[in-house]
Write a structure and sequence with these properties.
The structure holds 2 protein chains of 2 kinds. Chain A is mostly helical. Chain A is 73% helix and 4% strand. Classes of the chains: A mainly alpha, B mainly alpha.
């Protein structure tokens, strides 16, 4: 029973990180219909920022967290301004290829700067200690990860549903041209969306480092792709959908690992993606798309 | 209107045949005389394999207008199918004994099996994947590509076969790939793709790229042509995979990662999506550049990535756009110099427009 409980916590811990990343994917996709491949790599950069701040410069963990989130957010906006804004009216294919290019640039740039090896933070963990929950010991990192993710998601829902900027974001994702005619600044709204998405990725990065103690140049690509699967599973463009999808992927991966098939887990996640795309391409909570001539 | 001279079709193919033979003759003579060293001979073979990969991906990306990200998966299927087949045949013993003549049918069979297996996978993957478009198609093909790699890595340990030898890799594949074989395969690939694209089937594929709804409304079976183009693309990727297996003599699943698919994509994008000439040039240039940059390893991928982003921002059409070179067209222009412009026929009209 205790074993089962700790696996559930593991699944939720992994799932909440996926959910945070999936939210970023989902928001960016919802607003400019771009599959932002670079999103996963922003997490990688955030993880490196945390690693260097704590292990290299010996900063206080809280300062490191703020720094990592700040760097991630700025990076997200920078990518949007430098690579995606010039292509806003270009065909979708060009935009997608650019996103792949940016993702590769970040991955290989990191490999060049920081080396291909995995940086370990086991000796200086960001969050250490355990918590006793009704006779079961769980790591503090797991509890913090789950709690922070849930808070972030609630805050995001509030932001999108209740604030003026959120309204602008929803308007732009509905119809870019019409939103502009209503006096909404496209550039500002889109940059803001990237900022929020990357902010969440930054939190995800910190939580990832806090939970799994490592940073490597390629960590973002698989994480990002799986988070995208989570976003598709939940229904792209939907905030609660991204959460459900993230937790579902986390649970499935944990189940596969518990079953002793951990080398197959990437395959299983992509198999889920394929099944979802074929059976219900709009995902669990997505809106059906209507094709216009 | 004054009639201008046109070169008849058989002569056009004849001209290209002569040019191809001339290129082969020059390269073969340079290899025989030692001007091209053993090392650069290897580079030439790699160029050939990459050219086949690039022109085959160009069918799906350039002509059909989709973005599959699992091309390395098809290459892997072809490589493993060809590799396992070649190991099971007496090819290795024949090559060792120097009986090249007796080995030829086996080599042809291996290439066919590799191409067909990859084609079957293309069909299985294409039918569901092509129901989707754009980003979804990209991500689903990426998923399939990754699944192929995961299966290749793990299938032996689960089913207890000695089949792909998992992460340790398939070893001792007969080394069939020579410069002549690769050159022949490249020439045939380009010829077949060219002929398909100039036929009414090729036109149908192009019309889907331009506007799927319009294509559908004039009675083109878009699903059929999309799957057909996708399968054709997979078949040639499989052939390239088989040549790759026969060149290296061993295979590991990790060489067919997502990264490999992107490398092929960069070649197509750089050359110009929809231009065969562009794909050929880009594949050749990038292969040579990456050979020269071998000493600085890590910078190579950064260079690739930067190239991709800058290309999309400043010249999204690629180097060549959709332009394709035609020797015959050039000759026609020379013949008809000073005369009235040739009246474009229905088929030529589009090319003339593209030239401008």
């Amino acid at each position: 029973m205790a074993d089962f409980f700790s696996q559930v916590v593991n699944a939720l811990q992994l799932g909440s990180i996926y959910a945070l990343v999936a939210l970023g994917y989902s928001m960016v996709y919802g607003i400019i219909m771009l599959l932002n491949f670079a999103h996963g790599d922003i997490i990688m950069v955030g993880a490196y920022a945390t690693y260097f701040a704590v292990c290299q410069y010996g900063l206080h963990p809280l300062v490191a967290v703020l720094l990592a989130v700040l760097i991630s957010t700025l990076l997200g906006v920078l990518i949007e301004k430098a690579a995606y804004t010039p292509l806003r009216s270009a065909p979708r294919l060009s935009l997608l290829i650019t996103a792949i290019g940016v993702s590769f640039l970040l991955e290989n740039g990191a490999q060049l700067l920081f080396g291909a090896d995995t940086k370990s933070m086991v000796k200086t963990p960001l969050i250490s200690g355990t918590l006793n929950l009704g006779g079961v010991t769980v790591s503090l990192a797991a509890v913090i990860t789950i709690v922070v993710s849930v808070i972030a998601m609630i805050a995001l829902t509030f932001l999108v549903q209740k604030t003026k900027l959120g309204k602008a974001m929803r308007a732009v994702s509905e119809d870019m041209g019409a939103a502009q005619l209503m006096g909404i600044s496209l550039n500002r709204t889109i940059s803001f969306t990237f900022a929020i998405g990357s902010f969440l990725a930054g939190i995800g990065a910190v939580l990832h480092v806090g939970s799994y103690f490592q940073a490597s140049p390629m960590m973002g690509s698989m994480l990002g792709l799986k988070a995208f699967v989570a976003a598709v599973l939940g229904g792209i463009g939907s905030i609660p959908g991204a959460m459900i999808g993230g937790f579902a992927i986390g649970i499935v991966e944990t189940l596969v690992t518990v079953a002793g098939l951990s080398t197959w887990k990437d395959g299983v996640v992509f198999a889920i993606l394929i099944v979802v795309l074929l059976v219900k391409p709009t995902g669990i909570l997505g809106r059906p798309m209507v094709e216009k001539v | 209107m004054k009639q201008t001279k046109r070169i008849p079709m058989p002569v056009r193919y004849g001209i290209n045949l002569v040019l191809t033979l001339a290129l082969w003759g020059v390269l073969a003579a340079m290899i025989a005389s030692g001007v091209i060293t053993n090392y650069w001979n290897g580079v030439l073979i790699t160029i050939g394999i990459n050219v086949i990969l690039a022109v085959s991906l160009n069918i799906a990306t350039g002509y059909l207008g989709q973005l599959p990200l699992g091309h390395a998966g098809f290459m892997a299927v072809g490589a493993y199918a060809g590799g396992i087949f070649m190991k099971a045949t007496p090819l290795g013993a024949l090559l060792k004994a120097g009986e090249t003549g007796a080995a030829v049918p086996w080599i042809i069979l291996a290439l066919l099996i590799a191409g067909l297996t990859a084609g079957v996978f293309g069909l299985i993957i294409g039918i569901p994947a092509l129901r989707l478009k754009g980003d979804y198609l990209a991500i689903i093909t990426l998923g399939f590509g990754e699944i192929i790699r995961v299966v290749l890595t793990n299938v032996d340990s689960v089913l207890g076969f000695k089949f792909t030898y998992g992460a340790a890799g398939l070893k001792q594949i007969p080394k069939i790939t020579s410069f002549n074989l690769v050159f022949l395969c490249v020439a045939l690939t380009i010829l077949i793709i060219h002929m398909v694209m100039k036929s009414k089937h090729g036109r149908a594929i192009l019309s889907i790229r331009e506007n799927q709804i319009a294509a559908e409304s004039v009675g083109i079976n878009t699903t059929y042509y999309k799957v057909a183009a996708f399968v054709l693309s997979a078949v040639f990727a499989g052939v390239a995979g088989c040549l790759y297996a026969g060149y290296l003599g061993s295979l590991v699943p990790s060489s067919f990662k997502f990264m490999k698919s992107i490398e092929i994509l960069v070649m197509v994008v750089l050359g110009g999506m929809g231009s065969m000439l562009g794909s050929v040039i880009a594949a050749s240039v990038l292969t040579v550049i990456s050979e020269l940059l071998r000493s600085v390893g890590d910078y190579r991928m950064v260079f690739y990535a930067l190239l991709l982003v800058l290309m999309m921002i400043f010249r999204p059409k690629g180097l060549m756009g959709t332009y394709d070179f035609s020797m015959s067209r050039l000759l026609e222009k020379l013949i008809n110099r000073g005369k009235a412009k040739p009246v474009p026929s229905a088929a030529e009209g589009e090319e003339a427009q593209r030239d401008e």
